[in-house]
Amino acid sequence: MAKVHLTVDRDRDVHITIVGPLNHTTWSSIRRECYELEDIRSVSINLSGVQSIDSAGIGVLLMIRECAEKKNGKVMITGAMKNPNVNQIVKLAHLDKIFTIE
């Protein structure tokens, strides 16, 4: 099971760190928190601790993006290049076309 840590700083920037597999269990743990966020400026998703991503995990990233955009926030993925498997999924799913990747 993945561990998800979500913080919001005083500038309204949301920082999400995910450790473990990014899958359907991650979706259920982050869904409620995402929709409860108020006025946000940006969302940074740190994937450096993610070992694998399945189709539900891709859905998690897209859900976070949709949630942020509804609140006029921008989304950035960090740490994806640290794991070749995660980096490959990001590229195969063309997430690099719809997210800023650092």
Describe this protein's structure:
The chain has 102 residues and is of the alpha/beta class. The protein has helices spanning 24-36, 55-70, 84-92, 95-98; strands at 3-8, 13-22, 42-53, 74-78, 100-101. A five-stranded mixed sheet has the order 1-2-3-4-5. The model has no long low-confidence stretch (mean pLDDT 90).
SSE order and pairing:
Layout: E1 3-8, E2 13-22, H1 24-36, E3 42-53, H2 55-70, E4 74-78, H3 84-92, H4 95-98, E5 100-101
Parallel strand pairs: 2-3, 3-4, 4-5
Antiparallel strand pairs: 1-2
Helix pairs in contact: 1-2
Short key terms for the protein model shown above:
five-stranded mixed beta sheet, 102 residues, 41% helix, alpha/beta, globular, 4 helices
In short:
By secondary structure, the chain is α/β, with parallel strands linked by helices.
Rg, rounded, reads 12 Å
Helix content: 40-55%
Q: What is the number of strand segments? A: 5
The helix/strand class is: alpha/beta
- The average pLDDT score comes to 90
Shape: globular
Low-confidence stretches: none
Largest sheet: 5 strands, mixed
**Strand/helix succession:** EEHEHEHHE
Distance between the termini: 25 Å
* Helical segment count: 4
Q: What is the strand content?
A: 25-35%
State the strand order across the main sheet: 1-2-3-4-5
